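Interim report to the steering committee. The following record documents the input for Glycosyl transferases group 1 (356 residues).
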Amino acid sequence: MRIVCAWNHGLKECGKRYFNIDSKFQQGLIGNGHYVYSFSLNDIERLFSPICHRTFGKKGLNKALLKTCMNIGPDILFLVHANRITPETLAAIRQAMPDIAIIFFWGDAIWENAANIDRIREKLPYLDSVFITTGGDWLIPYAGPGRVVAYVPNPTEAAIDRGRAFEAEQTDYDLIFFGSDDPDRNPLLSAIEKALPDLKTGFFGCLGNPSVFGVEKERITSRSKMALNLTRRNDVFLCSSNRLADTTANGVLTFCDQASGLQALYRENEVVYYRDRDDLIAKIRHYHENDQERIAIARAGWQRAHEAFSAQRVTRFMLDATLRSKGYTDIPWPRFILEDGRKVQWDEHLIMCPSG
């Protein structure tokens, strides 16, 4: 199929976020045999601004997306966040191309008062499918007639996620975290440093430490023993940033809060789950002192990440679900799928018993 993908490649940043989810989706779609025309939202918005700044480029951006679709005649319009694309533009695209299917992906928070969730709701009448990296009842508000809504995991991509940290003979860090300062996370990170002073930690983008990007981030990840997957809220079922996919797919032993329900995604021999701060610190200490156990779990998590959550597999599901192809619900991750507002596959038992 011919697919126009409206996402953000960040050309202005000269490749320093080459590992982002947009790049993985692109690899997956092309790997599945589709033609992909990449419409880089932020860059095109700057291009059509009279002062090369996004503040004045929204109108030009929306006109450019409509014109691009008119020129290319895609079978699919694939939107990733696309906060600045208006409902009016989607209506115009659908009017001009009645047979087009419009896919929408959201990989950020969807809880109450989360940033930009109104931008999802306003687009719903024009979407054929919505895919969100949060599971369970959180999906229900986005369901409705003529629309598929489903949970998807953050994808991995072997050509991008090349690390095998469990094979590293020499490592630079015992424990890493990539993120930003947060009033809930910072005290936990400080407590770990205080409780485990002999640990070589790399907490990037927080606690006064600079962020890292590009190949430097890849090198750090591939030469680290363990990593933290910390989300701003751990009580939202299956909610995780692409941090989890990045660390497991690069072979790093990863710690997750058990309250998140991620046990439905990774088994307990593939990542390490903890109950609270004390349990986390104890388990970090344990795996720091027991390399063979650490390596075995990290290897299993790496294998799971690449086999079950590859970008080809995730994008194939997204296209098949949108087109309602036969057998599309046969997937290796939790099935939370609604068609026309009705639950067609709903792994309720995973919500009730997340540690099972």
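The mean pLDDT is 93. The committee is asked to note this result when reviewing the revised timeline.
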